[in-house]
Amino acid sequence: MTVQETRERVDAFPTRRIGGYRVRAGRPFPYGAHPVPGGVNFSVYSDRATAMRLVLFEKGAPRPVAELEFPPEFRIGSVYAMTVFDLDAENLEYGFRADGPFDPRTGDRFDAGKVLSDPYARLVSGRDVWGREPDWDDVYPYRANVLEDDFDWGDDTPLGIPTEDLVIYETHVRGFTRHPSSGVSAPGTYAGLREKIPYLKDLGVNCVELLPVFEFDELDNPRTDPATGERLHNYWGYNTVSFFAPKAGYAATGRFGMQADEFKTLVRELHRAGIEVVLDVVFNHTAEGNEDGPTISFRGLDNATYYMLTPQGEYYNFSGTGNTVNCNHPVVRDFVLSCLRYWVSEYHIDGFRFDLAAILDRAPDGTPLPNPPLLEQLAHDPILRHTKLIAEAWDAAGLYQVGAFPNYGRWSEWNGKYRDSVRRFIKGEPGLVGELATRMAGSPDLYGGRTASASVNFVTAHDGFTLNDLVSYNDKHNEANGEDNRDGGNDNHSWNCGEEGPSASAHVRDLRTRQMKNMLGILLTSQGVPMILAGDEVGRTQLGNNNGYCQDNELSWFDWGLVEANAELLEFTQRLIAFRHAHPVLRTVDHPVGSDRVGSGFPDISWHGVGAWRPDWSAHSRVVGLMRCGRHAKGGAVADDHVYIGINAHWESHDLELPGLPEGQAWHLFADTSLAAPHGLAEVGAESELHHPGRYHLGPHALVILVGRDRRTG
């Protein structure tokens, strides 16, 4: 746009000078800082502030170059808006000072001495290089920047993979490539993760779920490792500083302010590989903590609006981290909605997993709402219409809503009951055959009013034991976290297979591998959406630490040497994922009813025990078999093979009678976890026909997967 064209715009004319800068009344929407012809428009909300100043810094300067007070006429309702002309946006950092009452009993905590970050800042500096010590005396540690949205997405469009067809891979941006063995050019970054896309593609996953990537401060953990004295970090990132800004410390280019482009490039390249991106988002609390925490933005702008407060003005703590965001306040609802719309429209994000999502349906006084307006808005928002929404349907204050989360026909849930059932069954606990059967059928007891894809099935996640540790430790070992092993869950439902920790016994190691395969086999043949924790496919260990939130070291990082060392487990996982993709009967969204709905002569699902068609639901039973009829795949819309899964959690082997198949068909062996490699695993589509078609001998602590298809001729 030429100077002449700029001057022809009415809104490009300054109307006055403030602090030596040419300005005019700004536009209240959108909030934040946005380039406009000739300048930058700044807009910030505060309902109870009595005055507001815009604070301008040159990039990296310790002191501001100017502070511009918003005149009363620049305020519309509760929004202060001003356009400032002739700014060098690329060399600019900005913040606000909000003046007003300081009376915690009424919820007000204004402090004009604080420079506040913009809650809508789309770029934040101050933690540009991971772990680098900042200037702790900085008057403004988390600095809002102006972002030019000029990224070239090319022909990138949403992949639109049906939810039921997803195989989710949960990983940590830094931890995935930070280990020295990763071999990438920029370890621990978005760029490093991009170099590992071929690995993800070979694994077969079609969705990555990234732990928090919104800007956070990894240095806000006060603890040290009691053994080494080394600083512990806030490694996971569940302490959001800025919700619209990607984490600069995760970018190889973060020190140049290019983190947005680097992250967008990662998303674009994942999409080109057929992989969707889901972000783990934290709207239940912020990095400001309780009344003893730092004032960063929300607290200083409008504490009583953004946080749930007791009648005495103290912070409700349903998050377990000091504060709770007042999500169902209309202003905060708008903030959350605007944030998610932004990540979908500007970063092409495919979905979100909401941390401690039960908080999102609490009223300002903490009581659960029967019809939470935020959840309803998110479910029906036109921009988020096809975005995946996944709830962690519980919170730190005991509100547990698995199966009862207000879903509006749109939300899926992390199924914590699935996790516990699989762990306990494989461990060998009695009385769980019926429970496991229900979970493998998509948990119709929990999601009967929804589809099976409402259940995100998982055995492990970032929070808890890895799969390897689940079969290697009876107890958590979190001493390195500096909390005397008090942190982390105690109800792990784990079994160390006879020896705590690393073992020299070949028998113990073989049993552990078998148990890991068993759980992966159950996970990837269950109805619902499977989620795999990064590294489980190669037996990654955290040495029994089930709360690695603070461990930015080899304890948490993905050791790429395991790809070769545990190649057998990796190949097993790869082929299991391929098997799931090849068999739509495993991805049917309708809950099975146990009857023939398509005239195939077989029920959609049938249950078996040691005897075919005779399941044993008794308390002492540890054997269950299930068969899915391929004619019922996707509600009968597509044809598939029959699939039989037999699971033996007993310490003794069993001869299983197999259900019969249609004339001309026979059972073929895909996988048997009791057989030594390579005999216990076939390539998908190349399974060998059983020599004894009516029976199968299944070893102890083992799982078998069979495919029923036409007998080979010739």
Write up what this structure looks like:
- This protein has 714 residues and is of the alpha+beta class.
- It folds into three domains: 10-145, Sandwich (Immunoglobulin-like), CATH 2.60.40.10; 163-583, Alpha-Beta Barrel (TIM Barrel); 585-710, Immunoglobulin-like, CATH 2.60.40.1180.
- It is 20% helix and 21% strand.
- The strands form seven sheets. An eight-stranded parallel β-barrel has the order 14-15-18-19-20-21-22-23. Strands 1, 2, 3, 4, 7 and 8 form a six-stranded antiparallel beta sheet that branches. Strands 24-25-26-31-28-29 form a six-stranded antiparallel beta sheet, with helices on one face.
- Strand 1 and strand 2 form a beta hairpin.
- Helix 9 runs antiparallel to helix 13.
- The longest helix is centred in the last third of the chain and has 20 residues, at 506-525.
- The protein is elongated.
- The mean pLDDT is 96.
What portion of residues belong to β-strands? 15-25%
Main beta sheet: 8 strands, parallel, barrel
Mean pLDDT: 96
Counted up, domains total 3
Strands, count: 31
> Low-confidence stretches at least 5 residues in length (pLDDT < 50)?
none
What are the key terms here?
8-stranded parallel beta barrel; Immunoglobulin-like; glycosidase; Glycogen_debranch_GlgX; amylo-alpha-1,6-glucosidase activity; 714 residues; 21% strand; ISOA1-3-like_C; 3 domains; 20% helix; TIM Barrel; 6-stranded antiparallel β-sheet; GH
